[in-house]
Amino acid sequence: MILTIYHQQHRLGCHINMQLLLLILLEMRTIYGDVSSHYWESPYSQPYFDNSSRREVTAIVGQAALLQCRVRNLGDRAVSWIRKRDLHILTVGILTYTNDQRFQSLHTEGSDEWTLRISSPQPRDSGTYECQVSTEPKISQGFRLNVVVSRAKILGNPELFIKSGSDINLTCLAMQSPIPPSFIYWYKGKRLMNYSQRGGINVITERTTRTSKLLISKATSNDSGNYTCSPSSSDSASVVVHVINGEHPAAMQHGNNSASSQTQSLSKTLQQLSRNTVAAFFSVSALYHLLHSLVQIFATTNCYVVIVGVALSLQWPRLTQNARRRIVAR
């Protein structure tokens, strides 16, 4: 009996203790609200950088550049952006501390990201920028910005000669574009070619390789003109196409093979020059051997007197003529 009463009292005591514990937890939640996992470590941890951010960024001239810095356990510290080349403070917190209003700090309340936005960047903006936290001592993380000029390039010569009835094949590359262009348009003059109603025109664009091809089958003289490749994120490039009847003496191309034809012409020229050089060398060599043989013959036969006599006989008419002129003059 006594044992039963003891167990009942013990269970009652445990139940009361559990109720008290739940009441205490509910009271803490009412006072402090939901407590995040960072609450317990924030007062005792120093800020540190999250290295998942990209440390090197390539931007195109005129298109906004973003440098993203992530700082954990920031607490009440401030985040600043500093241009390293001149140690100029650009932003502190979300405030801009430079007269160049292209620089702006972006931050969402409660997030760990502090982003430096540079509107309309120019090549002179390339360099290192530091994300700095106002700890003691200060900690910083560098970010490299490369601002490039993205230019389109059409493969081949800037002026092409195509035989009438052949195909026009133009290939355009979007050079130095950090991201694939959203589109690449082809123009003939001011007329868009990508959606041309003329038959025989085909545009093949591969965004991943940043290339686009313009194919025009069975070209006619009406297809002559200025063709322009214009990617969405690059400066445009142009080429002049001449569609002619018959052969062009200097730069006729069949399917854009001007480079190969010029190479063949250069090869033929070099071969002819080498033949002429070899022939000249052997001619000089033969003459040298002939003169050397004559000298040896004269030296062995003591024909020096004969040589002098021949020389005088060759000069005798000239000497007698000069003598006659002197006598008449007297």
Tally of individual helices: 4
Q: Strand order across the biggest sheet? A: 2-10-9-4-5-6
Mean pLDDT: 76
Shape descriptor reads: elongated
**What is the element string, with H for helices and E for strands?**
HHEEEEEEEEEEEEEEEEEEEEHH
CATH class of one domain: Mainly Beta
CATH level-four homologous superfamily name of one domain: Immunoglobulins
Find the structural class using helix and strand composition.
alpha+beta
Beta-strand percent range? 25-35%
Radius of gyration: 45 Å
Number of strands: 20
Low-confidence stretches: 1-7, 12-16, 34-44, 253-263, 277-284, 297-312
GO biological process, one term: synapse organization
InterPro entries: Ig-like_dom (IPR007110), Ig-like_dom_sf (IPR036179), Ig-like_fold (IPR013783), Ig_sub (IPR003599), Ig_sub2 (IPR003598), Ig_V-set (IPR013106), Zig-8 (IPR037448)
Keywords: Membrane, Signal, Transmembrane, Transmembrane helix
Protein name: Ig-like domain-containing protein
Would you mind describing this structure in some detail?
One of its GO terms (cellular component) is neuron projection membrane. The chain crosses the membrane at residues 297-316. Residues 47-134, 137-240 form the Ig-like domain. Residues 1-33 form the signal peptide. This is Ig-like domain-containing protein. This protein is of the alpha+beta class. Among the domains are: 48-148, Immunoglobulins (Immunoglobulin-like), CATH 2.60.40; 153-244, Immunoglobulins (Immunoglobulin-like). Helices cover 32% and strands 32% of the residues. It contains 4 helices and 20 strands. Strands 2-10-9-4-5-6 form a 6-stranded mixed β-sheet, with no helix packed on it. Strand 5 and strand 6 form a beta hairpin. The longest helix has 44 residues, at 258-301. The chain is elongated. The N and C termini lie far apart (182 Å). The model is unreliable at 1-7, 12-16, 34-44, 253-263, 277-284 and 297-312 (pLDDT under 50).
